[in-house]
Amino acid sequence: MKILVLLFILLQVSNSFAQKESLSFGLETDLTSSYLWNGISYNDGLINQSSVWVSTNDFTLTTWTNYVLKDFDDRNKTNEIDLILAYEKEFGAITFEPSLLLYTYPKQTNPTTAEFSLLLTYPLENFDVFTSFTSDFLEYKGTFYNTSGVAFEKELS
Questions:
Q1: Cα 18 to chain centroid, rounded
Q2: What Rg do the C-alpha atoms of the chain give, in angstroms?
Q3: Residue 104 pLDDT more than 80?
Q4: C-alpha dihedral sign at 46, 80, 41, 144
Q5: How far apart are CA 93 and CA 43, in angstroms?
Q6: pLDDT tens-digit profile of 51-98?
Q7: How far is CA 117 from CA 76, 84, 87, 99, in A?
Q8: Which is it for strands 24-32 and 59-68: parallel, antiparallel or unpaired?
Q9: Which of 114, 18, 113, 28 is nearest to 57 (CA)?
């Protein structure tokens, strides 16, 4: 039931995307030597991680996939598909980004689950200082983790 409610919310927000004038979208893909998440390796081979996103009026809806290209057991499998709905707003110098994340694991025994996350970012000279607070509210209720750090981004030409 909770999954249906979350999907309904995602659907309602995505319907509002079509009604807005300022719409942007994109596609990103990465090839990595391994799928690491929070320091844990989930495979032993080449991975393709792709995402498709659409944004309007401070909202972004993203679909992210993990496709195993080379691994002894999981070759040629999509083993994770995520849906992410994020809202981004600046309050003074701080960027505030709450998001809902739905994790699905086709062809695996892992249960579908969902998280709420809050990312706070503060620019400092050429860097961004950030912290995010994330809590699962579906399958692993009450689990919580925090990620904090410093980010640097530079465009190469």
A1: 21
A2: 17
A3: yes
A4: positive
A5: 39
A6: 999 999 999 999 999 988 887 666 668 889 999 999 999 999 999 999
A7: 31, 10, 11, 5
A8: unpaired
A9: 18
* Three-state helix/strand/coil letters over 21-53: CCCEEEEEEEEECCCEECCEECCCCCEEEEEEE
Going by DSSP bridges, is the β-strand pair 24-32/47-56 parallel, antiparallel, or unpaired? antiparallel
CB 51 within 8 A of CB 61: no
Give the Cα separation of 146 and 134 in Å (integer).
Answer: 6
The model's pTM: 0.80
Q: What's the one-letter identity of residue 141?
A: K
Q: What is the distance between the alpha carbons of residues 55 and 6, in angstroms, rounded to a whole number?
A: 19
Closest C-alpha among 63, 60, 118, 111 to residue 91: 118
What ranges in the chain are assigned the alpha helix state H?
Answer: 2-18
Separation between Cα atoms, residue 73 and residue 70, nearest integer Å: 9
